[in-house]
Structure formats: structure tokens, C-alpha cells
Amino acid sequence: MVVCLFFSHKTVLLHETIDLLAIKPDGIYVDGTAGGGGASFEIAKRLSKFGKLISIDIDPDAVSICYEKLCDFENVLVLEANFAELVSLLNKNKINKIDGILLDLGMSSYQIDNLDRGFSYINDAPLDMRMSKSGLSAADLLISLNESSLADLIFKFGEERFAKKIAHMICIERKRSPIKTTLKLSEIVKKSVPNFSEMKSVKRVFQAFRIAVNSELENLKTGLKVCFEVLKNNARLAVISFHSLEDKIIKQEFNFQCQDCICPRDFPICSCGKNRQAKLITKKAVRPSTDEILKNPRCKSAKLRVCEKLEFLQK
Predict the structure, then answer these.
(1) Is 280 helix (H, G, I), strand (E, B) or coil?
(2) Based on the number of CB atoms within 10 Å of its own CB, is 261 exposed (0-12), middle (13-18) or buried (19 or more)?
(3) What is the pLDDT of residues 61-112, one digit of tens each?
(4) Is residue 13 classed exposed, middle or buried when 0-12, 13-18 and 19+ CB atoms within 10 A define those classes?
(5) Parallel, antiparallel, or unpaired: how do β-strands 28-31 and 76-80 relate?
(6) Backbone dihedral angles phi then psi of residue 32, each to the nearest 5 degrees
(7) Distance in angstroms (rounded) separating the CA atoms of residues 235 and 233
(8) Nearest to 145 by CA among 63, 222, 208
């Protein structure tokens, strides 16, 4: 695929992530969001012939470039899939437990900069936003959802306070002509909000539709639980997020896995039977350095959190 020759993506917090994964040369690792293959390449370099890396991405363009970038490694398996499907993927390939997993969420620079993908609100392009390049697009959602559902989507996934006004304007405009391009949606949002909020609102609305189109938060919730299920004892899960909705889900799941009893405090004895499954490796999120932000401004909001699965101890 020719487009893959131009696939560019700067892996965020790369050195910090690799260090915190504590890679064992003979271990089995998963890069659940391989993107341009930068992190996969660094993991693969550290593995011996007895180790193995499974690189996964839902974007067929990313999968193509990963094949090219990782082709010299005999112990790397590249798959086009969603990381939320990890259990079935491992079963199909007769792999049981994993020594470490990396999830680098959000979009790649390639996806943002490639106009055909419709993720950017800066240039005009078809209103697509599908990471998998299949299923319903953002334009499809704009046609099919009623005003109330549009407002809920924009508020829930974009945390946009002018969600109702924007949804109302979308419904007015789509009666005149279909909303099929990124700039048209951007202009509608700008007309719906005060001047001081224009670009922030546009950014939030595009985030909302991207999350909805790709079921990102649902996949993240499922994927995190799946990751803990397939990790070996003392194996690590590293997750990089780029906005508060993702980070909230990650913190909640990590905290849940690191808790013992979750019974109400007034219960005289534990009835839930829950055991602590993990410990936090990063007490606070790791953030990009000033130097990294200067080189790659898009990484400014990135947060890396890492936890380690513990041996199960029966109460």
C-alpha cells in the first residue's frame, strides 16, 4: 500500500515506557496499538530468539507499515485487530499468558495529517474518522442521530458545554444539505458558540465524533480487563492516554485491580471475596519532558500509567 510509505508517527514517552515495561529477553509482549511500529521496534530489539512480540493495530495502514518495519524480526507477529479482542487473538495463535502489554491510545500523526482519514479540522476532507476504515463514519452519525442524541454524544465524549446549541445548529444545517466534510462541520460548530470558544469547541466536537465512531471508550474498558486477564504474575501493563476521559477509565481500572475488599465500610466482614490483583508502578502519571513537547507539541497532554500484576493469593 503506497500510502504506508508516508506513515509517520512520533512515539510518545518511548524511552520511559520501554524502561517501565522491564522487558525480559525471552518474554512474550503485546503492543496493542502498534501505529507506525516505533514502540514495537524497540521492544523487538530487546528480545532474544526465545522471546516473542505480537504487534496489533486496528488501522490497516498501520498494519502494513508494521509489516515493513518489523519484517527483519522472525519472532514478531503483526495482526490487524482491536486490542479488546486480545484473548481470542492469543488463543488463535496458541499463546497463553503475556509478560507485558503496551497500549498507546489516541491517533497517530499519520491519521491526523492524512486528509483522506477525516480526523483533522484544519483542512477540508471527507468526514470519516474510522480508524479501521470500515463501519459507520462520522458523516453517517451526523445523518442518523436525532438532535437529542447528537447533544448527548457531544457532551459525553467531548465534554462540550455548548453541546445542545451545536446539536441544534447541526440539525438546521443538515436540512439544507448533508454534512459530509470536516470544514463544514467545523464552520457549523463555530457558528454555534461564542467567539472565545470557537477552536476549543471544534476540537472537542471532533474528539467526540472520533470516540463515538471508533467506540474508543468501550474498547478501552473491555481491553483493560482483558489485559489483566492475560498478564502473567509480575508482568506489567503500560497505558498512554491523551485526554481526561481515557485517563479516568485507566485510573479507575488500575485502582480497582490494586484494591482488596470493596465491601461498604460498615460491613462487619468481607463478603465480596476480592483479592488485590496488581500494584501501581507509577504512583503519578509520567508526563512528557519539556524537550519532548518542544519537539512534538502533540504529545503535551500524554500521560503514562503502569501497573504490575501480582500473584493471586487466596484469602
Answers:
(1) strand
(2) middle
(3) 999 999 999 999 999 999 999 999 999 999 999 999 999 999 999 888 888 8
(4) buried
(5) unpaired
(6) -80, -10
(7) 5
(8) 208
Match 459525553 to its residue by C-alpha cell: 156
Which pTM value belongs to this model?
Answer: 0.91
Task: Report domain extents, the chain.
Answer: 2-104+216-309, 119-214
When the candidates are 1.10.3380.30, 3.40.190.10, 1.10.150.170, 3.40.50.450, the CATH number that belongs to 119-214 is 1.10.150.170
Cβ(179)–Cβ(173) under 8 Å? yes
The rounded distance, in Å, linking the Cα atoms of 229 and 219 is 15
What is the C-alpha separation between 277 and 86, in angstroms, rounded? Answer: 19
H helix count then E strand count, the chain: 13, 7
* Secondary structure letter of residue 96 according to DSSP: -
Mean model confidence pLDDT for the chain: 92
**Of 211, 229, 233, nearest to 220 (Cα)?**
211
Geometric angle at alpha carbon 286, from 80 and 96, rounded to 5°: 40
Superfamily of 2-104+216-309 according to CATH: Vaccinia Virus protein VP39 (3.40.50.150)
Measured in residues, the chain has a length of: 315
What does each C-alpha distance from 125 to 6, 115, 122, 177 come to in angstroms? 18, 6, 9, 16
Positive or negative: CA dihedral 89, 93, 95, 99: negative
